[in-house]
Amino acid sequence: MNNDYKDRMDRVIKYIEENSNQKLSLDILADVSNFSKYHFARIFTSIVGVTPVAFVNQVRVQKAVYLLVETAMPILQISNECGFESVSTFNALFKKYYGKTPSDVRNSGRKNSNFSSHFSNKQGEVSPPHDYNRNRENQLLKRAWENMITIKELPEYEVAYVRHVGRYLDTHVAWDKLGRWAYQQGLSSKPHFFIGISLDDGNLVEEYACRYDACVTVPSEFEKHEHTMHVQFKTLQGGMYALYQYYDTIEKFVLAYQSVFSLWLPNSEYEADDRPCLEFCMNDPAKDKEGKCKVDLYIPIKKRI
After folding, report:
1. What CA–CA distance (Å, rounded) separates 273 from 281?
2. Which of 86, 100, 237, 265 is the most exposed place for a label (fewest CB within 10 A)?
């Protein structure tokens, strides 16, 4: 990993550790890192190994262990001091990490002088390592990535789209609706692209709430106002993108994002720009002999300063 990415991630982690008692939103942490707000959570997760929310909770719970064992501070006060919104949230997360309630830990800790360090070590064992500089430059991997990633400049696209809310694996419902509409408009006989846009990170948003736009490009002269009951319209920004060509099953497509954001991007001369990723659908998986999808994944990027 290049030093710039490491320094910026160090800055975020230090900020979390020093301000764990404050409200820490993704926007605040993205500002600290100077990464794109749109892609910050995915970058953090890919590099550190856990989501920003999970890391913040780990820091807060570890601080709570010390205060429970080493002070007589009331549990409600500890909950507030560590930045939890409520005692019920504090209790639930504490039990998730340690298998015990804060009261159990306090009572046990008073009987065991080494309890605080013991539990701190135990928590560290189940947490992912934060040695996110472990991906040192490897020339073989670097050459492989150079053959897999192409830097391209894309134009703006006018698109009609149907929004799906729910599991990403169920987006075929939106695609069916969009496909029928596109056929009725005669778009299938004109140059066009079908483009998917995953608007939410599945690590942060429950499956039932994930948003996805199934899009088809339309000519600039298309009469949009006549079709707003069936589809919506928007403009996709052009600019510089990193192209990763994927061909495998739909279920594994999420790994394409993980690979690019955790392996290629931190070791490249680029960073993610504040635009959505574009998934150009290059085939119909239902008609593929192996049932696989062919997707040109475009990651919005800009040169690191």
Report:
1. 22
2. 86
